[in-house]
Amino acid sequence: MAAVFVALMAVLAPAQQAPPSIPTTGFAGLDQYRASRIAMFTDDYGQLARYRDANAALTPGKGDNRVVFFGDSITDSWHLDEYFPGKPYVNRGIGGQTTPQMLVRFRQDVINLQPKAVIILAGTNDIAGNTGPMRIEDIEADLASLADLARANGIQVIYSSILPVHNYTERSKDFFAQRSPEKILTLDNWLKSYCAAPSNGCTYLDYFSAMVDDKGLMKKDLANDGLHPNAAGFKIMAPLAEAAIEKALK
């Protein structure tokens, strides 16, 4: 009788499903990364939990020249207090994010902080396909939407160029293969034109020209892994960012 009951339960019980999978990108490292993010993609796509408490602890920013640095891992890893001592600059970078994720959290992590300006550095992970394949025109649309949201709330927009990448080290080869230099140039040219249009009222922050070598790649000594600036890279970026902030706040 017990054996019959066990067999009946086995028939009635729902079949155990295999864990969810995602389409391959052709890059084992990126596939592994995307698979590790499935829970985040389904539970907190924009990663609103990351800065929720830190945002609540900030005092309103309208009385100072608060600037939010908004972006992905390049911003996330930048120790702003070391490069801009005493400045009311707030880091709201999250590693691995793409522009659709940034749109989800823009109100919480930028608008509600009431900054005078926002520096947006985004797009390299869209090109890589961190949250799935994206067309260039869709990346451009997301970037334009971020600027629209900022302008509607009286926030000056500073758009950073996407940084070049290199493949000069073993660590850099995968990052480079995922990020077409041609697509980077296409987006940077679009950003530059977008910022130049008087109706858009944005400031263009050109990191690319200061960090690219004669082959069109990131200078080898500025990024050990070909993508993320090291101390030497941030040392070049800091005065460029400061000059862009001064221009935007005039």
Q: How are the SSEs ordered, and which strands pair?
A:
Blueprint: H1 2-12, H2 28-36, H3 38-43, H4 52-57, E1 67-71, H5 73-76, H6 80-83, E2 89-93, H7 99-109, E3 117-121, H8 124-128, H9 136-152, E4 156-160, H10 173-178, H11 181-196, E5 202-205, H12 208-211, H13 231-249
Parallel strand pairs: 1-2, 1-3, 3-4, 4-5
Radius of gyration: 21 Å
Assign the CATH superfamily: SGNH hydrolase
Largest sheet: 5 strands, parallel
**What is the global morphology?**
globular
The CATH architecture: 3-Layer(aba) Sandwich
Seen as an oligomer or otherwise, the chain set is single chain
Count helical runs.
13
Please provide a written account of the structure.
With 250 residues, the protein is of the alpha/beta class. It has a single domain (48-249), classed as 3-Layer(aba) Sandwich (Rossmann fold), CATH 3.40.50.1110. The chain is 47% helix and 10% strand. It has 13 helices and 5 strands. The chain has helices at 2-12, 28-36, 38-43, 52-57, 73-76, 80-83, 99-109, 124-128, 136-152, 173-178, 181-196, 208-211, 231-249; strands at residues 67-71, 89-93, 117-121, 156-160, 202-205. Strands 2-1-3-4-5 form a 5-stranded parallel sheet, sandwiched between helices. α7 packs parallel to α9 (136-152) and α9 (136-152) packs parallel to α11. The N and C termini lie far apart (85 Å). The model is unreliable at 4-13 (pLDDT under 50).
Question: Which features characterize this protein?
Answer:
single chain; 250 residues; alpha/beta; Rossmann fold; 5-stranded parallel beta sheet; 13 helices; 5 strands; 47% helix
